[in-house]
Every structure is written in C-alpha cells, then in structure tokens.
Amino acid sequence: MTVKHALNIVKMKKMKQEQIPLTMITAYDYPSARLAEEAGVDLILVGDSLGNVVLGYDTTIPVTIEDMVYHSRAVARGAQHTFIVTDLPFMTYHGSIDETMRQVRRVMQEGHAHAVKLEGGAEIAHTVQAVVQAGVPVLGHIGLTPQSVNQIGGYRIQGKDQADAERLMADAKALEQAGAFAIVLELVTEQVAEAISKELAIPTIGIGAGRGCDGQVLVFHDVLKYAPDYREKKFVKTYADIGEQIRQGISEYVNEVKKRVFPGEQHVFAADEKVVDGLYGKGKVEG
C-alpha cells in the first residue's frame, strides 16, 4: 500500500497554478479524521464549528482554546499523513501579539496542527503577518465569519453589492500580502468569489462560494448527513445518509435486547464443563 504524503503550502500554490482543485473537509475526532484521510482529502480543518456540530452550542462563540487543542490532537492521531489546519477560536487573536502567539503555540505544539485559521480581513492582517513571520502557516477566512455572526447580523450571504464586493477583494489582498497561504471564502456570491480567486496568487477554498474557487470545503457531518436534526443547506451536497443508518441500527439493537434476541449463540463464550460443575455443583445444570 502506497503511503500518502501530506501536502505543503508550496504544493498547494502549485496546484492552483495547474488548476487542480483542493479538497478540504472538517473533522473533529480520530475516526472521522482517519476515514477522511483514507478517502483521499487534501486538507483537514479542525473547525470551531465543532461547537455547533459536536458540542451542541448554537454558535461557535463558546468554543475555547482547550476545545480546539483537544480535538486537534485527536484529529492529528487519526490523519498522520494529511495537512491539518486548526481554528483559533473566538477572541484568542484580537489582543496583544504575545497573547495570540501563546494560543498559536498551544495549537501547534499540543494540538499537532500544521497551520492555523483566523477569521477576518484587513483588520487582522498585522496579526496574520506576525504569525507567519513566526514560522506558522496561516489560512485566512473571509465572507461569512461565524465568530462575528452577532456583529454582521446573522448568517447572511456576502458580496451582494458593489461596496461589499470591493471590501471582500480588499480583505483578500490584505491577507495575501500578510502572508496567508490560502483563504476560505464562506457564503460569498459566486461572481465575487471567482473574481477574488483570479486576482490572488494563493488558493481560495470555497464553502457556499460557487464554482470559481480553487478548492472546496464542507463539514464532515453535512457531507454524510450525520446529525439527529439535520437541516438542509443550499450550498451543501450530501453524499450519504449515515444519520438515518445509525438511528435504524441502534433502534434494531434496542429491540433485539428487549426481545432477548441479542446476544445470540454466536456471541457467547462457553466454559469447560469442569468450570460449570465447580460453580453450580455436578449434575445441577441439566438441559
């Protein structure tokens, strides 16, 4: 079996030049990361979306650096040959550079990530530059930025008018100039995302940003419809419905236990007759 080698940021830029799309998927634990790697994804994002998806929060805002380090470390164990990017969570990179570096160090050293992702545009470019200069690859993230959902008025499509389009373009250029190796474009109109992708020398990775990006990212649980109360999303295509399979499987298990169908003969271990005699007395266990 051929061992997969993780991408690096130089190869990703070359893939853009050669028009080879990048594939990214979120993963939050060992088994999902292992399966994603075996399926051949280029990058894994340990997103702070884990707050919504696996921790039961309404937004990503409650997610802590401890959450991110814990889940990043699990993903790194599962996908040892895949490039892993881990989110810096809410308000961990808006203070002093020293404080930001402490959070970055934890994600890299304890979480075993290869890169970090920061939400925001021109307003955080100086932070991105400092992190890059410290030797850490940075993935930018503009458009809909979930950590700012309360400020931007909800989960709204970005780039719908000229002023917003120009702002997004300026943010993308600022992040590229600061040294980001790629930029996630989330819920951006297709035309604006395509224009940004053509303008930049670094790859763009879209989620709800149309067909003109240099790559795509989706959430593991959306791709597989793995949720108890899954909500359809226009920008998502689901490729399997394992949520329903899980529900049916567990339901069948419960029913079989209640009816004493499980465990069956094939699931039990037999002791030697002498052991049985010692427990109950010879001749007491008959037919």
TrEMBL record:
Its cofactor is Mg(2+). It catalyses: (6R)-5,10-methylene-5,6,7,8-tetrahydrofolate + 3-methyl-2-oxobutanoate + H2O = 2-dehydropantoate + (6S)-5,6,7,8-tetrahydrofolate. Binds 1 Mg(2+) ion per subunit. Its EC number is 2.1.2.11. Catalyzes the reversible reaction in which hydroxymethyl group from 5,10-methylenetetrahydrofolate is transferred onto alpha-ketoisovalerate to form ketopantoate. Belongs to the PanB family. This is 3-methyl-2-oxobutanoate hydroxymethyltransferase. It comes from Paenibacillus woosongensis. The gene is panB.
